[in-house]
Amino acid sequence: MEELLGRRLNSVEEKYSPRVIYVSGPLDIPLKGIRVSVVGTRNPKHRERARKIAAALVRQKITVVSGLARGVDTVAHTTAIEEGGRTIAVLGTPLNVFYPPENKELQLRIMREHLAISQFPIGAPVSRKNFPMRNRTMALVSHATVVVEAGEDSGVVSQGWECLRLRRLLLIHASLADLPWVKRMMEYGAHLFRYTDEMLEAILENCPNDDITVLEGLPIDL
Amino acid sequence: MRRNWLEYTSLLAYCPDLWNDGGPGQTAAEFVKRLKNNQPYNKVHFPSDIVAKLLKLFLENHELLKDVFHNDVVLVPVPRASPIREGDLWPAYEIANSISRLGLGRVSPLLERVKRVNPSSRSSPKARPTPTQHFESLSVRRNLSQVEEVVLVDDVITRGHTLIACAWRIEEAYPGIKIHAFAAVRTVSNKQEFKGFFDPVGLGRITYRRNRDDCLRRP
Which residues of chain B are within 8 Å of residue A7 when distances are taken between CB atoms? Predict the structure, then answer.
């Protein structure tokens, strides 16, 4: 039976889970609380939307997970930090590679004060296929994924399908409802949201909280 | 003529209004979330295995149900509200597998969802799909030559609309078959009636009301 970051995985989670994960940062492992991925395009038109979403999550003490890419990912991490919350960067590169280069300071800060994780060992080559693999890992370490803004061939598609495969909550901003992949994902259980309140309600209703580990009132010993 | 009743067994109770009471209501709500993702407690205990252990323990004191849950019965996981792809997590399938591992039946995923419906547990009473809508969104995979007894296995029962629709589909494909239902958790809408997290029902009843196209669940 496999484990990831101190938690046992079920058989469905095991399928694409990395065998080894490299971490840098002071956040507790096993990870605590609720974790939500905030993802989207590298060239957002609505940065403010990403900022509002990340800030709303932080106000509920939810950890913001993202991939440290340009655009929505960067806004998600920086907002979480500025609002005094927690953030986890799931990298598509080894921990000692800074990509994109302009996020070097942000990555170093996350490694110092929050948590950066990577499934790629130091010295491993960086290629395009790393990123869909990283997206699957991001879905796995998060209780839910929120897609803020994306295009027809967005990189978040791989994360969305992995989220549905794991039966994690997948929330997609309603402005993306006409995209073919969004329509397809909705048939398989994705949800649309327009307001942050709707998003938070769905997250709090559906996501287990890793801070709650007590299971009392049963006639069996665990 | 479709059946208008179905007997069910369940072990745990959950009251949506008590999700944040800091006590058994919250314990139940958290368990339901974990059950739907099959995410373990204390790193090791999967909710589906917990349900199976509780069922085995419960059966030790309920002779009548030993005729329902036994080695030869076919455990049929109830499809999720949305279609799934091969390899997707299917909570009812996980529960059925855990029960099967304790020698209380063999699993056969006889039913599939071919069209998405609103999940009952997350819908307001008016928005819940009717038994007829569930029936129309389900289909049977005819992959068993001989089936005599079936237990439909689900994670959460609300009114029983999904379960009665599943029973209709199975009876259509296997006339004369004996069908019972099992749901790990039953919802309790009135918080005054919530007695605690572990609150088993040995033999409950779902009654279909044809004139309203809905179900009444007791208890």
Answer: 39-40, 43
Chain B touched by A206 (CB under 8 Å) = yes
Q: Is residue B33 within a helix (H) or strand (E), and if so which, with residue range?
A: helix B24-37
Residues contacting A201, CB < 8 A, separation 6+: none
Residue keyed to tokens 């204390």 = B42
- The model's pLDDT over A105-127, given as tens digits with 9 standing for 90+, comes to 999 999 999 999 999 999 999 99
Find the mean pLDDT for residues B41-53.
Answer: 90
Inform me whether the C-beta atom of residue A219 falls under 8 Å from chain B C-beta atoms.
yes
Query: Which residue of chain A has the CA closest to B44?
Result: A8
What's the number of domains chain A is made of? Answer: 1
Sole residue written with tokens 């939307």: A49
Where does the pLDDT of residue B121 fall: very low under 50, low under 70, confident under 90, or very high at 90 and above? low
Contact A53, A146 (CB under 8 A): yes
Looking at residue A198, which CATH number applies to its domain?
A: 3.40.50.450
Domain range for A117: 2-221
**Beta-bridge mates of residue B198:** B12
Model confidence pTM above 0.90: yes
